[in-house]
Structures are given as C-alpha cells and as structure tokens.
C-alpha cells in the first residue's frame, strides 16, 4: 500500500472511531455503549497500526 494511502486509511479509521464514540454517547443500552466503545477502540488501534506502517514505509531500511 502506498505511503499516502496508509495515511488516508489512518485518518479514515480515526474518523470512524470518532463516529462510534458519538453514537455511544447517544445510545440508551449499556450493552450497545460497550460495543460501540469497543469498536472505537479497535478502529483507533488499526489507525495506530496504519500510521506505524506509514512511518516505517517512509524511513530508509537499515541493512547489516
């Protein structure tokens, strides 16, 4: 995946995580709140992974 695409993917995952948090704030069911917050956390973790790949892909590879 190109470096720019990874950055865009991370931004989209963060946007989705934010949306899940917003939905959780309006949810009336405790189980629904837990699930939505879990989904937000998963998307944040995936965004961090995409950013890590973005940083790694943008840096030179060290060779021995």
Task: Walk me through what this model shows.
The structure is a single chain. This protein is mainly alpha-helical and 64 residues long. It is 83% helix and 0% strand. The protein has 2 helices and no strands. The chain has helices spanning 3-26, 30-58. Helix 1 runs antiparallel to helix 2 (30-58). The longest helix has 29 residues, at 30-58. The model has no long low-confidence stretch (mean pLDDT 83).
Sheet of most strands: none
Strand content: under 5%
- Note the gap between the termini: 25 Å
Q: Give helix % range.
A: over 70%
Strand/helix succession? HH
- The rough form would be described as elongated
Helix run count = 2
- What's the mean pLDDT score? 83
Low-confidence stretches: none
Class of secondary structure makeup:
mainly alpha
> How many strand units?
0
> What does the radius of gyration come to?
15 Å
